[in-house]
Specification:
Largest sheet: 6 strands, mixed
Helix content: 10-25%
Low-confidence stretches: none
CATH topology of one domain: Jelly Rolls
Number of strands: 18
CATH class of one domain: Mainly Beta
Radius of gyration: 50 Å
Mean pLDDT: 84
Strand content: 25-35%
Shape: elongated
Order of helices and strands: EHEEEEEEHHHEEEEEEEEEEE
Number of helices: 4
Strand order of the largest sheet: 10-12-14-17-18-16
CATH architecture of one domain: Sandwich
Structural class: mainly beta
Length: 312
């Protein structure tokens, strides 16, 4: 039954007159209540606006068997036979709340050539919760803080972990001479040296002056006959023979490198020397014998024939 209203209503609050047309949460529509009593308050093609996702839902019958897209928690609701309201027979019909599909005429400014399904998909994306959108934005780098792939503006890195552009690297490479250029230095040319971490400068002419020379060396005192292994890290070996009549077996470095120099000197007493076997190298000539105090020899290693050659 319809009733004529002679004047309009003025709602003094923000509460809608018909709460059925307005849902704060999507869950309010998804649940039909005890014994599905809400289904008997909804009429066919009822439009309800949901504030949570800003979407309009329609209470309507399924358009096809097992149509998807409805939001009822327990699935499509089937009215019992004999349910008739306002002249509409609901008996045996399957209803659900479905998102309202807008027609071109209902979308202001929508080009008739635009596929409405595309618009609807876009609408779903737009209606994502603000919290989700903000979370996605938080995980994105600011445009002003990244170097984009299509960048055409010069960028110069200034910190250790700044990115570099292809042009920046190419320019550095182009600054490196393609061939070694060697020029003669005159007597006044400056040579930089470092001493105890401090950079100093000397002239080329100063390089011709003789200064104090230092050499790493080893000093060993022996009082009994034994084998002496010469140093493998530096060239000068001094052997002090404390007692006379000793016999010493001299062992050269077992794994020499090309051009390595090794020398030894015996001091204080006469001693019998034996060229011991150390590694695979041979001696040319050997140093075996009974030299007097002050005996000194120096050998240089030649890798090609695995020989220690006497030089002094």
């Amino acid at each position: 039954m319809a009733v004529n209203i002679l004047s309009s209503y003025l709602n003094a609050s923000q509460v809608p007159y018909d709460a059925k047309l307005y849902a704060v949460n999507l869950n309010d529509l998804a649940e039909l209540g005890i014994n599905s009593n809400k289904a008997f308050t909804y009429y066919e093609d009822l439009n309800v606006d949901c504030v949570e996702n800003h979407t309009t839902y329609v209470w309507r019958e399924e358009l096809s068997l097992n149509e998807t897209g409805g939001i009822l928690t327990n699935g499509t609701y089937v009215y019992q036979a004999g349910v008739i309201a306002n002249g509409i027979d609901y008996g045996g019909r399957k209803f659900n709340f479905f998102p309202k599909i807008l027609t071109n005429a209902e979308v202001p400014g929508l080009d008739s050539k635009v596929d409405l399904a595309v618009y609807t998909d876009a609408l779903v994306i737009v209606n994502q919760s603000i919290a989700d959108i903000n979370a996605e934005i938080a995980n994105k780098a600011a445009k002003s803080n990244v170097l984009e792939k299509d960048n055409t503006t010069e960028y110069l890195p200034t910190a250790d972990y700044h990115p570099t552009t292809k042009k920046f690297v190419n320019d550095l490479v182009n600054e490196v001479p393609t061939t070694d250029v060697v020029t003669a230095a005159n007597a006044l040319s400056i040579v930089e040296i470092f001493q105890n971490g401090v950079k100093k400068q000397i002239t080329v002419s100063n390089l011709t002056n003789e200064y104090i020379r230092k050499a790493e060396h080893s000093v060993v005192s022996v009082s009994t006959s034994q084998s002496i292994a010469l140093s493998t890290t530096f060239s000068l070996n001094i052997i002090k023979v404390v007692n006379p009549g000793l016999t010493l077996t001299i062992l050269f470095p077992p794994n020499p490198v090309e051009s390595q120099i090794c020398s030894f000197t015996t001091l204080t007493n006469t001693v019998t020397l034996i060229a011991g076997v150390s590694g695979t190298a041979s001696f040319d000539p050997t140093f075996a014998g009974a030299p007097t105090a002050g005996y000194s020899v120096k050998y240089v290693y030649h890798e090609t024939d695995d020989n220690w050659y006497f030089t002094r």
